[in-house]
UniProtKB/TrEMBL annotation:
Pfam families: HAT_PRP39_C, TPR_16. PANTHER family: PROTEIN HIGH CHLOROPHYLL FLUORESCENT 107. Its main location: nucleus. SMART domains: HAT, TPR. This is Uncharacterized protein. The lineage of its organism: Eukaryota, Viridiplantae, Chlorophyta, core chlorophytes, Trebouxiophyceae. It is found in: Nucleus. GO terms for biological process: mRNA processing; regulation of translation. GO terms for molecular function: mRNA binding; single-stranded RNA binding. TPR repeats lie at residues 263-296. Keywords: mRNA processing, mRNA splicing, Nucleus, Repeat, TPR repeat.
């Protein structure tokens, strides 16, 4: 019996997706490359079999982006939008994400707009466009986009819109508004199961100083997603800052076991071991991380800094070079590698080479304040005071300060809001008022249950302390 084309397409896409998961979890670089080649061939076959289906283009494009084949991904997305007649919002949003990644902000805006026109309920487009505007310092525009997204997706709420709006409110010092958005998000079905939402809430509460609430939120995040690498990393880093090194080490270890291909956890773990004086253990973890993800420039940068502090300058130079090679094109993060390398050459007495490296650092990221200040300090130490003053002036010119917009609010509580979005703010204010009234009549929901958990943890801690005094 002949299989229908539509069913054959679904089977090919499913098998390609499963193979990609196998490749991502493979420890062998050779096996991973082989399986990814098979995935690429399968997705190309899907595209040829049914050119009007946008999913094949999106999956293949993501594979190209993962492999840093950006030009091929751009051409593929353009081909896909043409083949689908411009009606696939997923394709437009994927193309917009890549354009933003490559710092083509104008193109990214147009593509996100096209995605929303194609499907006003496409959450990724609202969310991605808001993040783009926030990165550009357009906080009011970002707020408006996320609010419109929430309004458009009331029938199927998306937790990432609530999370981003809450985080923005927290960054603007509207803590109570942020809590309201976190509560609102965790009341939705998807939000309750979103580890990202719980983690972001915990990160905000860390700054407020309630340790028990932070642990309760992070615990809830791991309950809904036990493998979450982000929650493990955030929790471990926080425990380290609190001085609980053994607990941080346990979380790093568990996170790396559950996510063996995550270099960020290993890099953070290695940095902690170096801070504890365990240089050899840190080297072992850095080496492991570099094998897991050779393109992770932060691993090479941190490892190079370790060797630099240990006065192993030749080894550090090799590691910094690896970090520069690992950086994607036009990635401003590479400035961290150039700056660290420049400091090494400065200490080694190679002043001219240090200058050239610092030029590369500020060219890669003109907003990198540490690079400008290191350069100015070096020129000052060499007696070139006028040059140092010029560099500090350039730094002030490039510095981007986060300025809270006047009467900024996300719920309409910060003052009367006018313009086209006034009805949206008024509607959202009514939502919060209705939910607060319902909470007084209903049984405790998740946010209130967290308070119960925190109280129980405090009671257990007090009981253990009392038992210790009796003994």
């Amino acid at each position: 019996m002949r299989i229908p084309v539509c069913l054959a397409l679904r089977l090919l896409q499913y098998r390609a997706r499963q193979k990609r998961l196998v490749a991502n979890s493979s420890k062998s670089k050779h096996d991973r490359s082989r399986v990814l080649r098979e995935v690429e061939e399968a997705l190309k076959r899907c595209k040829e079999l049914f050119p009007e289906d946008g999913r094949s283009y999106v999956s293949l494009g993501k594979l190209y982006v993962q492999q840093r084949r950006y030009d091929e991904a751009l051409a593929l997305y353009e081909e896909g939008c043409t083949a689908t007649g411009g009606t696939n919002a997923h394709l437009w949003a994927a193309w917009a994400y890549l354009a933003a990644k490559l710092n083509n902000v104008g193109l990214a805006r147009k593509l996100y707009d096209a995605a929303i026109v194609a499907n006003p309920q496409h959450a990724a487009a609202w969310h991605g466009w808001g993040l783009l505007e926030k990165d550009q310092g357009n906080y009011l525009r970002a707020r408006d986009l996320w609010l419109k997204g929430i309004q458009s997706l009331r029938a199927n709420p998306n937790p990432y819109l609530y999370q981003s709006l809450a985080v923005l409110a927290a960054e603007m010092d509207c803590v109570e508004e942020a809590r309201k958005w976190f509560r609102e998000g965790t009341r939705t079905v998807k939000g309750r199961a979103s580890h990202a939402l719980w983690q972001a809430w915990a990160l905000m509460e860390q700054k407020q100083g309630d340790r028990d609430l932070v642990r309760a939120l992070l615990k809830r995040g791991l309950e809904v997603s036990p493998r979450s690498r982000y929650t493990h990393l955030s929790w471990a880093l926080w425990e380290k800052e609190e001085g609980n090194v053994e607990e941080a080490r346990r979380l790093f270890k568990r996170g790396s076991e559950l996510n063996p291909r995550d270099a960020a956890i290993l890099q953070a773990w290695a940095r902690m071991e170096e801070e504890q004086g365990e240089a050899e253990e840190a080297r072992r973890l850095f080496k492991r991380a570099s094998r897991v993800d050779p393109k992770h420039l932060y691993v090479w940068q941190a490892w190079g800094c370790l060797e630099y502090r240990q006065h192993n300058y030749d080894t550090a130079r090799e590691l910094f070079q690896q970090g520069i090679w690992a950086a994607p094109p036009r990635d401003p993060s590479v400035s961290l590698v150039f700056q660290a390398w420049a400091m090494l050459e400065r200490d080694a007495g190679n002043t001219q080479l240090a200058r050239e490296l610092l030029k590369c650092a500020v060219k890669a990221d003109p907003r990198s304040e540490p690079s400008w200040l290191v350069w100015a300090e070096m020129e000052e130490d060499l007696g070139f005071l006028e040059r140092a003053a010029e560099l500090r002036s350039f730094n002030m010119h490039e510095r981007v300060q986060v300025v809270k917009p006047t009467n900024f609010a996300t719920t309409g509580a910060g003052g009367k809001v006018g313009g086209l979005l006034a009805p949206v703010f008024q509607q959202i204010a009514r939502w919060f008022q209705r939910y607060e009234e319902e909470r007084e009549r209903q049984e405790p929901e998740l946010p209130e249950l967290l308070a119960v958990e925190v109280a129980a943890d405090r009671a257990r801690a007090a009981a253990r302390a009392g038992d210790g005094r009796q003994r």
